[in-house]
Every structure is written in structure tokens, then in C-alpha cells.
Write a structure and sequence with these properties.
With 102 residues, the chain is mainly α. It is built from four helices and three strands; from the N terminus they run H-E-H-H-E-E-H. Helices cover 53% and strands 9% of the residues.
């Protein structure tokens, strides 16, 4: 069973585009799979309008791209996965350092 995050204190980190990027960091997913993954991991339930609005903004910024449809479902994937991985690794390493100096 996936570990759930307490969403009461996610604040701005529960921003839909950020949740979509986090979901797609696990690999390509179609809309419903993103909704399910976000709900499973964070307890946040994105509605279709919110999800596709976030997807549209992320596509416009070139952070994600649509893949060819598979049985009426259009999966999406990260386009800047290596860059996002670098940012995530940097953030995690800084959190680890901050945690040891407290």
C-alpha cells in the first residue's frame, strides 16, 4: 500500500501543476491515471477541469507532452525529466543537510 501524505499542511505544494509533474515523474500516464495517482499519494482529488487546465499550462511551458493515444486515452510524459530530476536531487540533498544541522 502506498504511503499517504498529510495534505492538511501541503499548502502551495498542493498546486495542481506540481501534483501533475510529481505524478508524471513516475512515468507516462493518461488523465484518469494521474487523478488516481495524485489521490493515492497525497489524498488530493483533482477534478477533470483542474487536471486538464494544469496539463494545458504545463504543455504550454514545454514541461510535459502528449503521447500518441492508446485506446481513446492520451498519455502524457515529462519532457524535462533530466532537468527536473536534477532540481529534485538538489532539493533533497539540501533538505538532508538542513535536517542534520537542526
Amino acid at each position: 500500500m502506498a504511503e499517504r501524505t498529510n495534505t492538511n499542511d501541503l499548502g502551495r505544494w498542493s498546486d495542481p501543476p506540481l501534483l501533475v509533474l510529481a505524478s508524471l515523474a513516475g512515468g507516462p500516464r493518461h488523465g484518469y491515471a494521474i487523478i488516481q495517482d495524485v489521490a493515492d499519494q497525497t489524498g488530493v482529488r483533482l477534478g477533470p477541469g483542474t487536471l486538464y487546465g494544469a496539463i494545458g499550462r504545463l504543455e504550454e511551458r514545454g514541461l510535459i507532452e502528449a503521447l500518441p493515444p492508446v485506446r481513446r486515452r492520451r498519455p502524457y510524459q515529462l519532457t524535462a525529466a533530466r532537468q527536473l530530476r536534477h532540481v529534485a536531487d538538489l532539493g533533497l540533498s539540501r533538505l538532508a543537510v538542513a535536517g542534520t544541522t537542526s
